[in-house]
Amino acid sequence: MKKIIAMWVLILIVEFSYCQNSAIEFYKSALLNDSQKDYTAALHDLDNAIAQNPDYDSAYCLQGFINYKMGEFKDAIKLLDKAIKLKPNYFDALNGRGIVKAQLKDYIGAIKDFNKAIELNPTKPKPYYNRALAKAHLDDYEAAIKDLDKSISLDNNYSNAFYSRAFWKDLSGDYAGAVADYKKVIELDPAYREAYVGLATTMYQHGDKTPACELLKTAAEKGSIMADELVNKLCN
Question: Which of 68, 86, 96, 137 is disulfide-compatible with 57, CB 3.0–4.6 A?
Answer without folding.
Answer: 86
